[in-house]
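S.,

Sequence below, as promised.
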Amino acid sequence: MDDGYHMLDNNSYEDVTAQFEQTSRDMEPGALMFNKDFPLHDAMAAFEIGEPRFDSGLALLDDSRPPFDPLVPLLPEEVCWIIDRAFSCEIAWHTGYTLSQTVFSFLYVHALPDIDPDTISPHHHDPDRARPVELVSVVLRASVLGLLKCCDLAWRELVKGNVYDCEDWQSDKCDVPMSEAFPASRILGILDEACVWVRNSSRVRSTWRTALSHRLVLRKTLVELFSALLSKDYFRFRPLIETARVMLQHVRASPPPPPRSCSPAPHAFDPQFPRVLVSAIPLQPIQLPEQSKVWDTLAGLLDSLEQLSVLIEIPDLSTWDVVGTLRIWQPQPNQSLAYVRSAFQSAIHENGIILNKYLQKHAVDCFLMEALQIPYDSFISSFQTRWVGPDSLPLRHIERTITELLVGRTKSHWYNPPRRRRYCMKSLFDWHKLYATLTDVQKHLSPVSGMDVVTRLRSVVLMRRLETISDIVLSGFQLSLYSVNERPLAYWYLTRVLEQHLACLDEIIEVLPSKQRIYSMPCSEFQFRARYLTALQALSLALFAVTVKTMGSSWERLRLNFLRRYKWAFMHEYEDFDVPPVGHPNFLAFTTSCSVILQDKEFSPAEQAELAERLLRGSTAAPGRMAGPWTPDRMEFVSKMAELCRDLRRLPKSMDELQTWDVEQLVWDPDVQPWFPVMRNRS
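The prediction came back faster than expected:
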């Protein structure tokens, strides 16, 4: 061979290069040739695609595993262990792996016809009293059917399109049935029969009778809960969740012992079984989560559904907005499953119905009443009586746009973070379009004494748009998108947007009637937001000043990064409107601010952090009234922000001190704080 390749010094190798070259001359371009023992699936598995869930490498089937016998007798504790590990498969699917890697690696899923009690031959009824066949044919079969029905009900919710296939979850069923033909009532009946058998069986010790009963009741309750969610019977949630929690507590308190080395229980799970299923791509065998993490995730799922059962009774979309933003700002462990996020979005809006009971007009009602205390009828009347334009009043267009934007924003709180960021960027143009439409409408309305309704509405629309811009900037920190050179620009831009946001809040509060300024929910909420946003602005300004010195790139390089990062602000579609967009970034203004802040000898980053802390501490005394039952959660987040500000009072006391101050003391960690850095310990 003339390419420098040398055969290994081993007599068992034979050079077949010439044979491959000769054979390839007879093949057409694009043709493939495979060996019986090396099919296309194995060939594709050897390639890496950069997805750790799927990159399996070349891994042939393990022929050393004994054949799986679904009717092998099992001890009660072995059945408990198998049921618990089946929960692990289910939770692993909910966290983003494929069914074939998780649920379908549970071999009893594929052996249901073999363990049907009506088809088992008499010779399988073993006289071993410790291992009655009913533990498999009745108890384990019922649990497997319940598992598949839960997956089927979850699949039906997930496939609605609220979350994204292959991004948030994996829909591929690999042509494996998941109890779709069985109605939930039939599955519940089978689980009830299994519970009766366990209670009445004299062949199972009382300890394991209780343990098996708890697992069967837990599965039965989950089937009922998932079925109620799909039919939107939210009133059934709370008793079912309470029952599930009690059963889960019992299950956690009675873990089965690990199976012995000679036990057949571990053979019920084969991580390589996906290799024999119909799959679009090669799949990597995965390690199922630890049992304690499985129960924690299941408990988080129950907590999330309980939150939904409470929230669905609150008609105010502003409360949904507050709860959604809190979920993003302060994510709770085990409460971000795609199934839960889809359930919340279905409750917000589905088939033209809002919150499972209201028509789409409800969104406009909320938008007007919650922000401006203007009844919907008064809004309509004001438009119709004052319209003097040459064309028809674009009222329906305004209503439809408000509904789409408000519902879309509320649902976006339950998107995955990158998807929500993209949605916010796209929605900015629609908010500006609505703002421009209202500006044009105002020109064709007859004058009115006092404050104009349209002027007030424009302020609210602008406030919503500026709020969305702030969400985009802050999400960049939470997603760790910004480089060291981009952080100063992001903090500077946030201070500018918050300044305009606060101006809108002042305008809205100013035009509220004097009584409403004292007693109304909107006014107390806006006052809370004003204090909170002022603190956010002060902290952002301090960090802008501190991080300016970290910029190491040229202005030209920074400008190119600026155009790439904020490309949503430079869409050519904005040129179609006479009204310029408000709140868009300006790179020249940023460069000017950099020079000014470095020369400001009186500016103190530490004092800005201290101001932010005072404002946040004061906010806890008046937390606003739109958070509803989640007011303690809001206050917890504000208190954590205040503690952060207290720590950041160690920032430089002046810009002169900044010259020698070590910026490396600041650490950005979204798992600790989503937007701002924490200080390293002095030690």
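The radius of gyration is 31 Å.

Coffee later?
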